[in-house]
Amino acid sequence: MSLVDKFNEKTVFSFEVFPPRSTTSAEKLYQTLTDLQAIQPDFISVTLGAGGTDRYNDTVGIADRIQNQLHIPAIAHIPGLYLNEQDVLSLLSELAAHGIHHVLALRGDAIPGKTPQGVFQHADQLIQFIKANSDFEVLGACYPDTHKDAPDALHDIQNLKHKVDLGADHLISQLFFENQHFYNFREKALLAGVDVPIEAGIMPVTNKKQIERIAAVAGVPLPTKFARMLARYENNPEALRDAGIAYAIDQIADLVAQGVDGVHLYTMNNSEIANRIWSATASLFAASHKPATIK
Ligand SMILES: NC(=O)C1=CN([C@@H]2O[C@H](COP(=O)(O)OP(=O)(O)OC[C@H]3O[C@@H](n4cnc5c(N)ncnc54)[C@H](O)[C@@H]3O)[C@@H](O)[C@H]2O)C=CC1
Ligand SMILES: Nc1nc(=O)c2c([nH]1)NC[C@@H]1CN(c3ccc(C(=O)N[C@@H](CCC(=O)O)C(=O)O)cc3)CN21
């Protein structure tokens, strides 16, 4: 089934989860996934090697469970840096054997001290390879605040256009905390001829250290307003969680009102937060009639 077609029907809503470290947290993740099932998101993506970890197992097993037990379309992330052609082909056939035909093709984060394979140095090469060797639908990543390795926004958008020309069927954005940056990016991407759906990536804050670490790895700026919120509630987890949920809801309500193609929620494996955000915004998604373009 094509996921891209869903963007013609509605404002898409999707989740992301990551494979947990231990067996106990694996059980917790399955509970989380069961809790999220009632929302019936359009798909759930599963990271692989997120943030530069060396844990490459579990992604396929978790994606299988999502697809075949929860009956929600699953997307597996594939970061290319440390894989060769054979690794990618094996992953694709394993996924296909489970009825999964969607991947997010990425360059991936560098792992300190580990030498890349040198085969897929950028996501574009991986996208081209997957398109040439399978019938998978391929997603790509994009950067409202410009990727930190790009010389400037223009080159970043040119690279994005190249990924779309090579076959990226839809895009998921890096997390961002300033909607105007997303709108500016979206406009530039459209002008550059990027004509595939772009989902906005939203990450609710759960704790100050974690969000600061992720923002640093991802090269995403924290607006003053957001940093003040973190500083004010850093020692009060309940208040920080509530403030973070309110911030994410505010971002999502605005994005949906501005006709965004979809919202991809980085759940950080926390179903309570995802459920609260969903219950506050479900009617906005239901009511959404997408205009052809957004400003
Ligand atoms: N492991 C995971 O689950 C996830 C990882 N990520 C991370 O996102 C980041 C980048 O991934 P992608 O966007 O897939 O990488 P990408 O290869 O498209 O872009 C990475 C950088 O290289 C530049 N670039 C792209 N193609 C180029 C080319 N042909 N020549 C020269 N420069 C080029 C881009 O402008 C950008 O600065 C990584 O840090 C990745 O790990 C993001 C989401 C999930
Ligand atoms: N550069 C970059 N790399 C990514 O992996 C990535 C992005 N950007 N942007 C969006 C999401 C966010 N992702 C993340 C970010 C952090 C964790 C993380 O903190 N993982 C911990 C587990 C913590 C726990 O077990 O509770 C880990 O150690 O892997 C996972 C996925 C994956 N994605």
From TrEMBL:
Protein name: Methylenetetrahydrofolate reductase
Pathway this chain belongs to: Amino-acid biosynthesis; L-methionine biosynthesis via de novo pathway; One-carbon metabolism; tetrahydrofolate interconversion
Family affiliation: Belongs to the methylenetetrahydrofolate reductase family.
One Pfam family here: MTHFR
Signal peptide interval: none
Sorted UniProt keywords: Amino-acid biosynthesis, FAD, Flavoprotein, Methionine biosynthesis, NAD, Oxidoreductase
EC number: 1.5.1.54
Enzyme class, broadest EC rank: oxidoreductase
Cofactor(s) needed: FAD
GO biological process: methionine biosynthetic process; tetrahydrofolate interconversion
GO molecular function list: FAD binding; methylenetetrahydrofolate reductase (NADH) activity
GO cellular component terms given for this protein: cytosol
Catalytic activities: (6S)-5-methyl-5,6,7,8-tetrahydrofolate + NAD(+) = (6R)-5,10-methylene-5,6,7,8-tetrahydrofolate + NADH + H(+)
Species assigned in the record: Loigolactobacillus bifermentans DSM 20003
InterPro entries, per the entry: FAD-linked_oxidoreductase-like (IPR029041), Mehydrof_redctse-like (IPR003171), MTHF_reductase_bac (IPR004620)
